[in-house]
């Protein structure tokens, strides 16, 4: 890409945005200028602030990550907020991308937005084939509308607005808050405290549900590739293979191994299990990148635990 390329990353201070920043700053010299936004640069749910930041940055490319994001328990509590806030952010960012003639936008869906009643493995063609799991219908429908907007802008203006569909992400700079965060950072925060205080380590739910987890640094490398090389309007799933799916219990054991935790493990089955599985196929990704190497799961867990131990005082929790 030419050296006049300006890539603006909305949501640039979150888990995924921080990983993209890390990869860009630790790789070979990028051909592009990169600008990473936080909500302090602009509240993107406000169209006037959104226009102002596009006016200021004048991006040629946008990686759109900004959203209200959270784990199962935050979604269960705030479905309406997830829908309304994310719908307005998404509409504003794509409208301003059109108004400022952005050449390409890569937005983010999620494997948790697919129909709850479905055949497996899930693939990119199945997004709108039925209602999502009820636990996160607000977030899911707002995400699905990104795909609708992408197709609408392409039909009306030929816009190159596309999207990726990551599976559950974890890594440094995650949100480790116990109530609002996702399972991996939640387990890490709990393991840290249980080891420090000599208390039980509690896994919520039965531990039986299945998930595919992608390390944020791997997702970052894939998203940079999508921004530079992927030419389809249809979205692409960015996930480890079906064969790398693990149970919540397996993931928790990997976290405990990384902490060298020797205490008592208990399951709080009064807490919801949420969706049992959302097994996604990465066949389309493999057709493009058959040689891509994902970081082994436990190595990624260990790197994240090491980061959390070193940054506990300032981590989001
Ligand atoms: P995150 O850590 O919660 O970061 C969210 C980012 O969005 C932050 O930079 C935040 O800014 C920004 N933001 C929130 N509200 C905003 C607003 N009104 N205006 C401007 N910026 C706003 O989220 P993440 O996990 O990195 O997720 C990034 C993207 O990946 C999201 O679109 C999410 O749906 C998608 N995704 C995530 C996962 C996962 O497991 N984490 C899985 C699949 C897809 P501040 O830092 O200033 O608050
Ligand atoms: O990452 P998570 O919160 O969301 O994982 P989802 C929830 C699963 O992990 C449930 C179990 O089975 C929980 O019972 N779990 C065990 C825990 N211990 C914990 C813990 O300490 N914290 C948390 N959070 N869970 C989300 C969607 O679904 O997937 C979001 O709701 C988002 O919209 C995200 O897209 C990627 O994987 O169930």
Question: Could you characterize what this model shows?
Answer:
This is GDP-L-fucose synthase. Catalyzes the two-step NADP-dependent conversion of GDP-4-dehydro-6-deoxy-D-mannose to GDP-fucose, involving an epimerase and a reductase reaction. The structure is a single chain. The strands form 4 sheets. This protein has a 6-stranded parallel β-sheet with strand order 2-1-3-4-5-10, sandwiched between helices. It has 10 helices and 12 strands. 42% of the residues lie in helices and 14% in strands. α2 crosses α4, α4 runs parallel beside α5 and α6 crosses α8. The chain has 317 residues and is of the alpha/beta class. The longest helix is centred in the N-terminal third of the chain and has 21 residues. The structure holds NADP nicotinamide-adenine-dinucleotide phosphate and guanosine-5'-diphosphate-beta-L-fucopyranose (GFB).
């Amino acid at each position: 890409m030419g050296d006049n390329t300006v890539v603006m990353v909305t949501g640039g201070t979150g888990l995924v945005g921080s990983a993209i920043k890390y990869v860009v700053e630790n790789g070979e010299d990028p051909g592009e200028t990169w600008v990473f936004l936080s909500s302090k640069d602009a509240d993107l749910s406000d169209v006037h602030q959104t226009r102002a930041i596009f006016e200021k940055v004048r991006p040629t490319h946008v990686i759109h990550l900004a959203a209200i994001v959270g784990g199962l328990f935050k979604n269960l509590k705030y479905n309406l907020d997830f829908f309304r806030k994310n719908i307005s952010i998404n509409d504003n960012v794509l409208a301003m991308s059109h108004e400022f003639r952005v050449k390409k936008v890569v937005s983010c869906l999620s494997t948790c937005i697919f129909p709850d009643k479905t055949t497996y493995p899930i693939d990119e063609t199945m997004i709108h084939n039925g209602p999502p799991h009820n636990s996160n219908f607000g977030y899911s429908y707002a995400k699905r509308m990104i795909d609708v907007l992408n197709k609408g802008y392409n039909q009306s203006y030929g816009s190159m607005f596309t999207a990726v569909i990551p599976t559950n992400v974890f890594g440094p700079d995650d949100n480790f808050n116990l109530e609002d965060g996702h399972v991996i950072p939640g387990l890490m925060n709990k393991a840290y405290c249980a080891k420090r205080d000599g208390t039980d380590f509690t896994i919520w739910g039965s531990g039986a549900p299945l998930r595919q987890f992608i390390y944020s640094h791997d997702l970052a490398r894939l998203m940079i590739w999508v921004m530079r090389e992927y030419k389809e309007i249809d979205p692409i799933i960015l996930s480890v293979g079906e064969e790398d799916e693990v149970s919540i219990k397996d993931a928790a054991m990997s976290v405990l191994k990384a902490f060298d935790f020797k205490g008592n493990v208990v399951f709080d089955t009064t807490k919801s299990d949420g969706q049992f599985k959302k097994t996604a196929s990465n066949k389309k990704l493999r057709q493009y990148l058959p040689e891509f190497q994902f970081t082994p799961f436990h190595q990624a867990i260990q790197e994240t635990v090491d980061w959390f131990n070193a940054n506990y005082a300032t981590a989001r929790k």
